[in-house]
Every structure is written in C-alpha cells, then in structure tokens.
Amino acid sequence: MLKIFPNCPQALLELLQDINGTYYCQHGKETISVLVLGSDVGDYPYYLKSVEQIVADYHEKRETIFERYKEFLEHVEIDEKINRHVPLNERLCFADCMNNGGTSSLYIDFSPNEAGQVGQVVRYVHDPDSFAVIASSFEEYLQQLMEGDYEFTAIYEEEF
Known about the structure:
Blueprint: H1 10-18, E1 23-27, E2 30-33, E3 46-48, H2 51-60, H3 65-69, E4 77-78, E5 92-97, E6 104-109, E7 120-125, E8 130-135, H4 138-146
Parallel strand pairs: 4-8
Antiparallel strand pairs: 1-2, 3-5, 5-6, 6-7, 7-8
C-alpha cells in the first residue's frame, strides 16, 4: 500500500496493522462486518476498509470529480479545499458507509487545492452529491472520533 500511497498517515498504517478492515474481512476463522467509524453524517457510520480493499479501489476509480460531474457540476457541493481535477484514486479511500459504500466514503486527500492541506480527510456523500473536508488530517479525524464529534448512535443488526 505504501508503494501506492507513500504519504499514508502513520496512524492509519498502525490501525490497519491492528485491524485490517471491518467490512466483511477475515480475522482468524471469523469474517467480520463491524461499523467502527463515524463522520458528520450522524446516523450513517462507516466500515474501515482493509488494505486489500484500499488497493482495489486505487485500481478502479480513475476519473476526476470534474469528469464525473461535468454535465451538472453546478449541482454538486465541492469544498474549496478539494481539487476537482485530481483522479479519485489518488485519494486514499479508507472507509465506506454502512450501506456498502457508493453512498458515502471517507478519503485522505494528498493533492488538495491551495486552500486545503495535504492529508485532509474528505467525506463524499451521494444524492445530493457533495465533497467536504471534515478534518485537516487523519490524526485530527481520529481525535474528533475520540471526543465524540462524530458519534453514531444507530446500531443495525443484519440477518444472516
């Protein structure tokens, strides 16, 4: 993963060493699916992606925000700190929302606009589509989690 994302925050690397993902990931003989992360979208917690899932995302999402939305860009909220011309796969997607991703994801942004910071955490939400910076770094994001800023209260049990 460091070959693809050499600036990956040490805190994320350590988290992935301890828990290599919580979205249908194999841990010993068990497959787990546990919501462990929150964001400013309160009732929609996130799964931590595994290294393998992060690398797979890198190979799939090559379009830019501009390319994806060019026909209706004026209807998409994009934080001024985010460079809309950088391919999505150049942002490290470390978490997907409880509804199996696609609807909301969390990214570490290594190529922000001048107003942004390298390493800022970006939250993408679909319908209505928006991209917002929710923390200036992964470490700040973790601190917000610990302080309860991004708590989630809903726990959903899936029937198997």
